[in-house]
Amino acid sequence: GAAAIAQAADTVRIAVPSPYGGDAAAYGENVKAGVEIFVDELNAAGGINGVMIEPVYLDEQCVAKEAATVSQKIVSDESIVAIVGHLCSSAHLAALPNYVDGGIAAVSPTATNPSISDNNKDRDGKAWSFRVVYRDDFQGAFLAEYAKNVLGLERVAVFYQNDDYGIGLKDAFVEKAKEIGLELVGEEAYVRGTTTDFNPQLTALKEANPQALFISGYYNEGALIASQAAQLGMDVVKLGGEGLDNPDYITLGGEAAENTYI
Q: 1: buried, middle or exposed (CB in 10 Å: 19+, 13-18, 0-12)?
Protein backbone atom coordinates (compact mmCIF):
# COMPACT_ATOMS: atom_id res chain seq x y z
CA GLY A 1 0.00 0.00 0.00
CA ALA A 2 2.74 2.42 0.93
CA ALA A 3 4.61 1.61 -2.29
CA ALA A 4 1.54 2.33 -4.42
CA ILE A 5 0.96 5.66 -2.71
CA ALA A 6 4.63 6.57 -3.07
CA GLN A 7 4.48 6.00 -6.84
CA ALA A 8 1.56 8.40 -7.13
CA ALA A 9 2.92 11.17 -4.91
CA ASP A 10 5.97 13.37 -4.52
CA THR A 11 5.90 13.02 -0.72
CA VAL A 12 5.14 10.20 1.68
CA ARG A 13 3.95 11.20 5.15
CA ILE A 14 4.87 9.20 8.26
CA ALA A 15 3.18 9.99 11.57
CA VAL A 16 5.39 10.37 14.65
CA PRO A 17 3.01 10.38 17.66
CA SER A 18 4.91 11.06 20.86
CA PRO A 19 4.82 13.32 23.94
CA TYR A 20 5.89 16.78 22.78
CA GLY A 21 4.12 18.42 25.70
CA GLY A 22 3.52 17.39 29.29
CA ASP A 23 5.90 15.79 31.75
CA ALA A 24 7.36 13.30 29.25
CA ALA A 25 8.21 15.87 26.57
CA ALA A 26 11.96 15.31 26.91
CA TYR A 27 11.48 11.77 25.60
CA GLY A 28 9.46 13.04 22.64
CA GLU A 29 12.13 15.57 21.73
CA ASN A 30 14.70 12.75 21.65
CA VAL A 31 12.53 10.77 19.24
CA LYS A 32 11.90 13.85 17.09
CA ALA A 33 15.63 14.59 16.90
CA GLY A 34 16.35 11.04 15.73
CA VAL A 35 13.59 11.13 13.10
CA GLU A 36 14.74 14.49 11.75
CA ILE A 37 18.36 13.36 11.44
CA PHE A 38 17.38 10.35 9.35
CA VAL A 39 14.73 12.10 7.25
CA ASP A 40 17.08 14.99 6.45
CA GLU A 41 19.81 12.55 5.36
CA LEU A 42 17.36 10.45 3.32
CA ASN A 43 15.73 13.40 1.54
CA ALA A 44 19.09 15.04 0.83
CA ALA A 45 20.12 11.84 -0.95
CA GLY A 46 17.03 11.93 -3.16
CA GLY A 47 14.47 10.28 -0.90
CA ILE A 48 13.07 6.87 -1.76
CA ASN A 49 13.11 6.55 -5.56
CA GLY A 50 12.74 10.32 -5.76
CA VAL A 51 9.91 10.48 -3.22
CA MET A 52 10.50 12.73 -0.22
CA ILE A 53 9.57 11.69 3.34
CA GLU A 54 7.56 14.08 5.50
CA PRO A 55 7.26 13.36 9.23
CA VAL A 56 4.02 14.45 10.91
CA TYR A 57 4.53 15.16 14.63
CA LEU A 58 1.47 14.60 16.82
CA ASP A 59 1.46 15.29 20.56
CA GLU A 60 -0.22 12.60 22.69
CA GLN A 61 1.60 13.51 25.95
CA CYS A 62 2.33 9.85 26.73
CA VAL A 63 -1.30 9.55 27.88
CA ALA A 64 -3.46 6.63 26.76
CA LYS A 65 -6.61 8.71 26.20
CA GLU A 66 -4.75 11.28 24.10
CA ALA A 67 -3.03 8.52 22.14
CA ALA A 68 -6.37 6.92 21.28
CA THR A 69 -7.63 10.26 19.92
CA VAL A 70 -4.44 10.92 17.96
CA SER A 71 -4.55 7.42 16.45
CA GLN A 72 -8.02 8.09 15.06
CA LYS A 73 -6.69 11.20 13.29
CA ILE A 74 -3.79 9.19 11.85
CA VAL A 75 -5.99 6.40 10.50
CA SER A 76 -8.44 8.87 8.93
CA ASP A 77 -5.63 10.67 7.07
CA GLU A 78 -5.02 8.64 3.89
CA SER A 79 -1.79 10.52 3.17
CA ILE A 80 -0.13 8.87 6.20
CA VAL A 81 1.31 5.47 5.29
CA ALA A 82 3.06 4.39 8.51
CA ILE A 83 3.74 5.32 12.11
CA VAL A 84 6.91 5.77 14.15
CA GLY A 85 5.49 5.49 17.66
CA HIS A 86 4.09 5.52 20.15
CA LEU A 87 6.74 6.26 22.74
CA CYS A 88 5.07 5.01 25.94
CA SER A 89 3.69 1.50 26.32
CA SER A 90 0.28 2.60 27.59
CA ALA A 91 -0.10 5.07 24.73
CA HIS A 92 0.93 2.49 22.13
CA LEU A 93 -1.49 -0.12 23.47
CA ALA A 94 -4.35 2.41 23.60
CA ALA A 95 -3.75 3.44 19.98
CA LEU A 96 -3.17 -0.04 18.57
CA PRO A 97 -6.82 -1.11 18.04
CA ASN A 98 -7.31 1.79 15.64
CA TYR A 99 -4.19 0.85 13.69
CA VAL A 100 -5.34 -2.76 13.45
CA ASP A 101 -8.74 -1.63 12.16
CA GLY A 102 -7.13 0.81 9.73
CA GLY A 103 -4.46 -1.61 8.52
CA ILE A 104 -1.53 0.70 9.19
CA ALA A 105 1.76 -0.43 10.73
CA ALA A 106 3.18 1.19 13.86
CA VAL A 107 6.85 0.78 14.79
CA SER A 108 7.69 1.98 18.30
CA PRO A 109 11.25 3.09 19.05
CA THR A 110 10.81 2.85 22.80
CA ALA A 111 7.68 1.04 24.06
CA THR A 112 8.90 -1.94 26.08
CA ASN A 113 5.79 -3.67 27.47
CA PRO A 114 5.91 -7.34 26.35
CA SER A 115 2.30 -7.43 25.11
CA ILE A 116 3.00 -4.91 22.33
CA SER A 117 4.53 -7.49 20.00
CA ASP A 118 4.16 -10.85 21.70
CA ASN A 119 4.42 -13.84 19.42
CA ASN A 120 2.06 -15.94 21.49
CA LYS A 121 -1.59 -16.87 21.84
CA ASP A 122 -2.46 -13.36 23.08
CA ARG A 123 -1.08 -11.65 19.99
CA ASP A 124 -4.55 -10.86 18.49
CA GLY A 125 -4.00 -8.36 15.72
CA LYS A 126 -0.46 -7.44 16.76
CA ALA A 127 0.73 -8.13 13.19
CA TRP A 128 0.47 -4.34 12.80
CA SER A 129 2.62 -3.64 15.86
CA PHE A 130 6.42 -3.64 15.97
CA ARG A 131 9.24 -2.33 18.12
CA VAL A 132 12.99 -1.78 17.73
CA VAL A 133 13.87 -1.93 21.42
CA TYR A 134 14.21 -4.62 24.11
CA ARG A 135 11.26 -5.77 26.22
CA ASP A 136 10.54 -5.23 29.90
CA ASP A 137 10.73 -8.94 30.65
CA PHE A 138 14.34 -8.79 29.45
CA GLN A 139 15.50 -5.65 31.21
CA GLY A 140 13.60 -6.37 34.44
CA ALA A 141 15.20 -9.78 34.75
CA PHE A 142 18.60 -8.38 33.80
CA LEU A 143 18.39 -5.71 36.52
CA ALA A 144 17.54 -8.28 39.19
CA GLU A 145 20.48 -10.46 38.18
CA TYR A 146 22.80 -7.46 38.03
CA ALA A 147 21.72 -6.33 41.50
CA LYS A 148 22.48 -9.70 43.05
CA ASN A 149 25.36 -11.08 41.01
CA VAL A 150 27.30 -7.93 40.12
CA LEU A 151 26.47 -5.42 42.85
CA GLY A 152 26.20 -8.10 45.53
CA LEU A 153 22.92 -6.77 46.93
CA GLU A 154 20.65 -8.92 49.06
CA ARG A 155 17.67 -6.70 49.99
CA VAL A 156 15.75 -4.55 47.49
CA ALA A 157 12.59 -2.46 47.79
CA VAL A 158 10.35 -1.84 44.77
CA PHE A 159 8.61 1.45 43.90
CA TYR A 160 6.63 1.22 40.65
CA GLN A 161 4.52 3.37 38.36
CA ASN A 162 1.00 1.93 38.22
CA ASP A 163 0.54 1.55 34.45
CA ASP A 164 1.44 -0.85 31.63
CA TYR A 165 5.08 0.18 31.61
CA GLY A 166 5.71 0.32 35.35
CA ILE A 167 3.85 -2.89 36.12
CA GLY A 168 5.40 -4.87 33.27
CA LEU A 169 8.92 -3.88 34.25
CA LYS A 170 8.23 -4.44 37.95
CA ASP A 171 6.72 -7.88 37.39
CA ALA A 172 9.77 -9.02 35.42
CA PHE A 173 12.13 -7.75 38.11
CA VAL A 174 10.13 -9.34 40.94
CA GLU A 175 9.81 -12.70 39.19
CA LYS A 176 13.54 -12.96 38.54
CA ALA A 177 14.40 -11.70 42.05
CA LYS A 178 12.35 -14.47 43.61
CA GLU A 179 13.93 -17.02 41.30
CA ILE A 180 17.52 -16.11 42.22
CA GLY A 181 16.98 -15.42 45.93
CA LEU A 182 17.16 -11.61 45.89
CA GLU A 183 15.02 -10.60 48.86
CA LEU A 184 12.18 -8.15 48.17
CA VAL A 185 11.59 -6.23 51.38
CA GLY A 186 8.78 -3.92 50.27
CA GLU A 187 6.62 -2.86 47.34
CA GLU A 188 4.82 0.45 46.80
CA ALA A 189 3.01 2.04 43.83
CA TYR A 190 2.29 5.54 42.52
CA VAL A 191 0.25 7.05 39.68
CA ARG A 192 2.23 9.18 37.24
CA GLY A 193 1.38 12.87 37.23
CA THR A 194 -0.85 12.86 40.33
CA THR A 195 1.59 13.79 43.10
CA THR A 196 5.07 15.09 43.80
CA ASP A 197 5.14 13.81 47.40
CA PHE A 198 6.44 10.26 47.70
CA ASN A 199 7.40 10.47 51.36
CA PRO A 200 4.59 8.24 52.70
CA GLN A 201 5.60 5.30 50.48
CA LEU A 202 9.31 5.91 50.94
CA THR A 203 8.93 6.05 54.71
CA ALA A 204 7.26 2.63 54.63
CA LEU A 205 10.00 1.23 52.41
CA LYS A 206 12.75 2.72 54.59
CA GLU A 207 11.49 0.78 57.61
CA ALA A 208 12.30 -2.44 55.74
CA ASN A 209 15.98 -1.39 55.57
CA PRO A 210 16.65 -2.04 51.86
CA GLN A 211 20.09 -1.85 50.28
CA ALA A 212 18.60 -0.69 46.99
CA LEU A 213 15.47 0.91 45.59
CA PHE A 214 14.15 -0.35 42.25
CA ILE A 215 12.28 2.56 40.61
CA SER A 216 10.03 1.20 37.88
CA GLY A 217 8.92 4.40 36.17
CA TYR A 218 9.96 7.51 34.26
CA TYR A 219 12.67 10.05 34.96
CA ASN A 220 10.42 12.84 36.34
CA GLU A 221 9.07 10.90 39.27
CA GLY A 222 12.28 8.88 39.44
CA ALA A 223 14.33 11.98 40.18
CA LEU A 224 11.85 13.11 42.83
CA ILE A 225 11.84 9.66 44.41
CA ALA A 226 15.63 9.55 44.51
CA SER A 227 15.79 13.06 45.99
CA GLN A 228 13.14 12.45 48.64
CA ALA A 229 14.69 9.10 49.55
CA ALA A 230 18.00 10.89 50.17
CA GLN A 231 16.24 13.46 52.35
CA LEU A 232 14.85 10.59 54.44
CA GLY A 233 18.35 9.24 54.91
CA MET A 234 17.99 6.34 52.49
CA ASP A 235 21.56 6.07 51.26
CA VAL A 236 20.79 3.24 48.84
CA VAL A 237 21.56 2.12 45.33
CA LYS A 238 18.92 3.13 42.76
CA LEU A 239 17.97 0.72 39.98
CA GLY A 240 15.79 1.52 36.96
CA GLY A 241 14.90 0.70 33.38
CA GLU A 242 15.16 2.92 30.32
CA GLY A 243 12.45 5.13 31.82
CA LEU A 244 15.15 6.78 33.94
CA ASP A 245 17.47 7.13 30.96
CA ASN A 246 17.22 10.87 30.36
CA PRO A 247 19.62 13.71 31.24
CA ASP A 248 16.82 15.38 33.20
CA TYR A 249 16.98 12.56 35.75
CA ILE A 250 20.41 13.86 36.72
CA THR A 251 19.42 17.52 36.39
CA LEU A 252 16.35 17.11 38.60
CA GLY A 253 17.81 14.59 41.03
CA GLY A 254 21.15 16.32 41.57
CA GLU A 255 23.41 14.51 44.02
CA ALA A 256 20.60 12.08 44.84
CA ALA A 257 20.91 10.68 41.31
CA GLU A 258 24.36 9.35 42.14
CA ASN A 259 24.70 5.58 42.46
CA THR A 260 21.92 4.86 39.95
CA TYR A 261 22.15 1.87 37.63
CA ILE A 262 19.92 1.66 34.53
A: exposed
